[in-house]
Write the structure tokens for this entry.
Amino acid sequence: MFCIRGFIQQLKKSELMTSPKRGNIFESIIISEIIKQFYNRGEEPRIFFWRDKDQHEVNCIIKYGTQLIAIEIKAGRTPSICFF
């Protein structure tokens, strides 16, 4: 995850926006930033991914103390109800 920035720097913006892997790349950047924030505070990140048998998923679940924080990551330009 942490070496993805070097890969992205090699891409032109137009290539990144049209790449079929755009969503995966964006998700990796966001999750690596979340992990980095935990380590910068001296905390061990407790981050999970969830998918059920029907392929519904949550990209990032953070266990923070007794809380579970669900984060859905999308690379779309505008939010859509179908994202949720």
